[in-house]
Amino acid sequence: IGKFAVGGLTAAGILASLTPNFAWAQTVAKDDKDLKLGYETVESPTGNGSIKGYLSRPVKGKKFAAVLVIHENRGLNPYIEDVARRLGKAGYMAFAPDGLTSVGGYPGDEQKGVALFRTVDGKKMTEDFVAAAMWLKKRPDSKGKLGAVGFCFGGGMVNQLAVRLGKDLNAGVAFYGRQAGVADVPKIEAPLLFNYAGNDQGVNAGIAAYEAALKENKKKFESFTYEGKQHGFHNDTTPRYDAEAAKLAWERTLAFFKKNLK
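RE: above sequence
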């Protein structure tokens, strides 16, 4: 029986099965002794003024390849913080900004987070992530190589950052994220990795045109579709999680970053 199995068909039981359990997301402990962990605030003058985020980096070492971690459409929740710690354990300096900073930050509740997310100006939020990316890349403990990984909304933001940052982005990994506009593809310089869910019609409708444009413009990319899996399959706090697909997609992500950042 999976950890998300529902014991009965009562409304309470169904609700419980759909509520994220963030204890399961703690693959890496919050007090892991191999990591330096904490929160930083980055100035974003063309965005919402500033954006706060979670910084994870190894204790050992002086300079690291950097990876921006971009959340789903609900803010910086414990799952995304754990992803940042996982990257820290893999030897990267990871920074996970909270796109909800301007409205008080992630509220500790997923549905409230989704509601708050809808109130934030999308263009300004994009500027916040651009500011966070460049701050991370230019930190004195950065090697100057920048990657980005995002999930859901964050996957789409990785594609947008590839357009916006050009050569300043060295690798991008999008998990089930919406594609950038075909007209913007010539601006992309970074190699990209796409991890799509097979059962995700809305996002997948844009794959063919995007990948055709990437090929036409001779851009480097790899694309994988995990058949039968749901949008959000990497998120190990929800019923959409698929352990096998998540493991494989994450292994591919780390291999991609190793190839392009280290």
